[in-house]
Amino acid sequence: MRPMQYDSSKLVIKGRGEPGFSYPIVWEDSFSALSDEIRKVLGSFSGKLCIMTDSHVSELYLQPVTEALKSSYTLTKPFIFPAGEKHKQLSVLQEFYQHLLCSEMDRKDVIVALGGGVTGDMAGFAAATYRRGIRFIQIPTTLLAQVDSSIGGKTAVDLGSFKNMIGAFHQPLLVYMNPLVLQTLSGEQFSSGMGEVIKTALIGDEQLYTYLKMNAEAICRGEASALRHIVRACCAVKAAVVEEDPLDQGIRAVLNFGHTIGHAVEAESRFSLPHGHCVAIGMAAALRLCEKRGFLKPEERNEAAGLISRFGLPTAAEEWVSQEKLLSLCMSDKKVEEGKLRFILLNKIGSAFIEPNLEKDELIEAIRSISAG
Ligand code: GLY
After folding, report:
1. Mean pLDDT rounded to a whole number for the chain
2. DSSP letters for 324-371
3. Which atom of ligand 1 lies at the shortest distance from residue 241's CA?
4. Is the CB of 154 under 6 A from ligand 1?
5. In this predicted model, what pLDDT tens digit does every residue of 255-285 receive, in sequence order?
């Protein structure tokens, strides 16, 4: 799979799985073009926009986004929920449905998701289901959301501790990104997003991988040109994958590189570790298997693991993470069918494939390689 071509300010996803379906991803250094970009996708629209955001992002960006929209659109009262994955639940969604109802949102109206992955997933699921489906716009504000979750139409809420159990595919009308908002992220949030950036480079863009090696300091300093570059390059890879397989029935699985063991570490930590950190540990384990199978030279694996560490990400699990527990979590993963474990490997840096039948011994070895002690 090849990253999609893009110009400096946008790329357009053409959903081949859904005839006639297409939406733009737009990158701008401020929110001032938001109104014009919405007009391009909505045309002469006289309905309402309802912004969903969380208590953290609302402090930072609700005001500039509202300013950018209010002279052109009717805005309802925004819906602000407490920040954090633990609020990605049906109870918050129910409050949001009530809010939409009280704001008299009807089928022609539009939800605007302003925030990270939790907000995008939850607002998208509300849009997929409220009045049997209304339109929505993504304005992702975290690195993880800009490079991954805002693109491709996966929407969901968690069911208790089961992540993304209740969900739907519902594509946004527009994804509007301002990469400069990434400069306000906490170190942990930024490095968590870098886990997905490194994953994207490893599975689909060798040039991006080289860029990450050469520009790690500029990226960590949050230099604007570096942020723009990594966001656009990752979007081009993600867009190519979801355009090919919008409903996750085949090649989209390559986006799960590092995620089988990563999800197990995440569950074992009871979600106390950030997602990208768990993916980083999972990638370190998967890289071992790639080396073992002869797809990567030892020095290539070392270099990739070193790159993960350079962005402040772990490459081994903490002592309290039990190897047996990780194994049983991996074997109960949805990627196991008839005892066969589907696993994503690299055949080289920048190219991934789906191994349909990973041997249990290989999995054990991979888990051992990232376990302390
Ligand atoms: N985040 C993985 C996917 O969109 O399929």
Report:
1. 94
2. HHHHHHHHTSTTEETTEEEEEEEEETTEEEEEEEE-HHHHHHHHHHTS
3. 5
4. yes
5. 999 999 999 999 888 888 999 999 999 999 9
